[in-house]
């Protein structure tokens, strides 16, 4: 069956040819292989350590944590808590749900593509997502972004089905319930999913009054869930204090990262113009796709002018829609051979970026390696001073892991500055400062200091003499000896 430039009417799909199913399986296998490749080679970075630590808490302590921070992704922590009880807490097993979400995203992209472009052409956007460097990067990350993308696509597919079903069709009730569940799940996994869901809901708003009331009734529960999550998130907006102010260069850089690189960003913009001028999609579908390309990015940029919140990974659900636009432009080309070349060239450019993602060396602080070195040289009774909260959390997590594996629990150093009765506030432990810190430090003969390479050491009593240390992925582990202590 040759591809066609005609508008593919939603809901009237022809059965796939014999080659379609094997091709879809091949695309899914590519996605799975890219997601699993070297999945355990690199240690968890800080956000992943936060996921690992939060999911290891008891339900009571997790509830207390979410009362202070990360309530907007609390359900993900709860899901990961249940997951690790079943499959364990190795680095790769904590990342595995994201791989599953990524493969599901590729499958759902294929379903949307087949609905809008036809059985064979619908596989093209799925291939683009399967080899997309941004999507693959977060398919290998113990954070909720890949799962959110899958649930947003499931919501979109269900919304399209609802839009196409006749009012008297008995499947409408079941489909509407599933839509509400999928959309609500997207929002509770990550609030920013609403930026895409809102565009989908507006684009599919029925023209007749009765249909609009019914559509509104289905979206009211999603709106209520969004309002609750938003209210909680606004109380915890201080957790985004690390996000820098948005600038024109960071906006363009974020858009380029989200698209899969500057070349693909330029191709996506050109594809959007082609799709807007052609009839490859129905008008409503064209508005939906172009709206998702523009509105979430613009809304997040506008919000970031008021309070910095522009983080490209928060917009990962946009990636499949970008791929659908690219595929639509490919299908709009006149000649079959030209379409094949354009599809292959786009996939190749994306794949080059993805290979570099999979093969790249670790870019973050290597808590795992630093913990291994520290524990191999530590003695019972040693203390430790961490550069900041993130270093404390990452080092504490891997030190306990290393100690449990080797049976060296007695050699895990004590956090020197942690107040003995201080209650954890979110991911933070209250620390002694000033004279109290000096008195505490003086009780230790040996203190391990873990700091960032190229930055000043945390303040220590002048009597401590520290070795130069060696870097471990941006971290430097130093042994400091108190020359005036009799401990």
Summarize the structure.
With 487 residues, this protein is mainly alpha-helical. It contains 19 helices and 6 strands.
What is the percent of helical residues? 55-70%
Number of strands: 6
Tertiary shape: elongated
Outline the biggest β-sheet: 6 strands, mixed
**Number of structurally distinct domains:** 2
Poorly predicted spans: 1-16
Please identify the oligomeric state: single chain
SS summary, helix count: 19
Class by alpha and beta content: mainly alpha
Q: What is the string of SSEs from the N terminus onward?
A: HHHHHHHHHHHHHHHHHEHEHEEEE
Q: Provide the gyration radius in Å.
A: 25 Å
The pLDDT mean sits at: 90
Task: Please report which band the strand proportion falls in: under 5%, 5-15%, 15-25%, 25-35%, 35-45% or over 45%.
Answer: 5-15%
- First-to-last CA distance: 82 Å
Task: Please describe the structure with a list of short key phrases separated by commas or semicolons.
487 residues; mainly alpha; 6 strands; elongated; disordered N terminus
Question: What order do the helices and strands come in, and which of them pair?
Answer:
Layout: H1 20-36, H2 46-55, H3 59-66, H4 74-87, H5 91-117, H6 123-130, H7 133-139, H8 145-164, H9 171-189, H10 194-203, H11 209-235, H12 248-259, H13 262-277, H14 283-306, H15 318-332, H16 336-359, H17 367-377, E1 383-386, H18 389-406, E2 414-415, H19 434-441, E3 446-452, E4 464-466, E5 470-472, E6 475-482
Parallel strand pairs: 1-2, 1-3
Antiparallel strand pairs: 3-6, 4-6, 5-6
